[in-house]
Write a structure and sequence with these properties.
Length: 363
């Protein structure tokens, strides 16, 4: 092998030569500042995870209530100057401690706050689903591109060890070629007044919120894009919870390799699992996409055994936050950029169309 300067750089040999050591040392130590927008349930899951980050810290909080922002600020070490309301949000452009805005608002607000964050010169992490519609998702991508901002969607499972291992197994020859994927996600939704049941704020029902995990799993396990989709919806419109959005919507995706994915999405019962069935066995994940405790079992040669994932050394949340920070520092594209969220939004719209018109929709 010829050893030129480029190969030394990629081999890490440059460190001993001291050619770029200061820049590397600086980025290895650097922690980019995140502003968390919307202090709800999921922000409560994310905020403590900054403690495990190597490249990320929380430097600002945005809330409808300054009192709430102050309480959170005291808990997470954010000073008064880093606290904003939705009205003062745009002045975040003047805060040099904020590099990335993390939008953890109801789905119907993702578009507005992503566009405003990009206009304020910040990079953006946006929660799933990316937006209420594919058209909004396209505008978010365009706004971030125009501003030179990175845009990443909070698809945490791509950073979770069990899911990473399931992807590896599904795409290897270990179980033979994959034939069938089944993926089920759902929970029994409560309070009928919550935003998840309001069409303007949620964009749709279970599919937008929890069924999207079944869709994501089918796509990341195969590494392919579906070519067609069919779907069946079942919603009791007399149930006060489902006046505006769907309850259950099951869908089937066909992939170019011939894999078929059967997916469940529901607000009526608890599901969190997927199974990859190959010609030589299967891999089962349950819980599959939970915050913690995901578990894999593998069946081959007539035996079913636990299949632990290799330790990744970092939890899925901190790994996700650090990934975007590193993408910003190295000017590289996130694993789950805005385009990935847009692909899901386009398929979600096709699923709704297929259910509505009771036909197979070609993608
Ligand atoms: P919550 O209702 O718990 O929190 C949303 C927060 O948004 C509120 O607490 C409030 O914060 C703010 N908000 C501003 N305007 C409104 C409004 N009109 N109605 C309600 N809230 C408002 O929701 P979640 O935290 O569960 O969900 C937020 C986002 O995160 C969603 O897009 C959801 O899909 C996503 N999510 C992702 C998960 C994942 O695992 N990736 C898990 C759970 C949610 P404040 O009082 O500070 O203004």
């Amino acid at each position: 092998m010829t050893t030129n300067r480029r190969s030394l750089l990629t081999m890490g040999g440059v460190l001993s030569l001291g050619l770029t050591q200061p820049a590397r040392a600086q980025s290895a130590d650097r922690r980019l500042g995140y502003a968390i927008v919307g202090l709800g349930q999921y922000a409560d899951v994310i905020l403590p995870r900054f403690a495990d980050c190597r490249h990320s810290r929380v430097t600002a909080l945005v809330s409808g209530s300054m009192d709430k922002a102050r309480q959170y600020g005291a808990r997470y070490g954010v000073p008064e100057g880093g606290l904003y309301t939705y009205e003062t949000f745009d002045t975040i452009r003047n805060n040099p401690d904020v590099d990335i805005v993390y939008v953890i608002l109801p789905n119907g607000m993702h578009h507005e706050y992503t566009v405003r964050a990009a206009a304020a010169g910040k990079h953006v992490m946006c929660e799933k689903p990316m937006a209420n519609t594919a058209a909004e998702a396209e505008q978010m991508i365009a706004a971030c591109r125009a501003a030179g901002s990175k845009l990443m969607i909070g698809y945490r499972c791509r950073f979770e060890p069990s899911n990473r291992e399931a992807i590896r197994v599904a795409r290897s020859a270990e179980l033979g070629p994959t034939r069938i994927i089944t993926a089920e996600h759902g929970f029994n939704i409560g309070d009928p007044t919550q935003w998840r049941l309001n069409r303007a704020l949620a964009g749709g029902g279970s599919l937008m919120d929890i069924g999207i995990y079944s869709l994501q799993a089918a796509r990341y396990l195969t590494g392919e894009e579906p070519v067609s989709v069919s779907a069946v919806e079942s919603t009791d419109r007399s149930d006060i919870r489902f006046r505006e959005v769907e309850d259950t919507i099951n869908f089937q995706l066909s992939f170019p390799s011939g894999v078929i994915a059967d997916c469940v999405s529901t607000y009526g019962s608890h599901h969190n699992r997927y199974r990859i069935v190959g010609t030589q066995g299967w891999l089962d994940a349950e819980s599959a996409t939970a915050y913690e405790g995901n578990r894999l079992r593998l069946h081959r040669d007539g035996r079913t055994i636990d299949h632990p994932a290799p330790d990744a050394g970092q939890n899925q949340f901190s790994a996700m936050l650090d990934h975007l920070s590193q993408c910003v520092m190295t000017d590289s594209e996130p694993l789950v950029a805005g385009e990935e969220g847009l692909r899901d939004m386009r398929i979600i719209e096709a699923i709704y169309l297929a259910a509505r018109e009771r036909r197979t929709v070609m993608l």
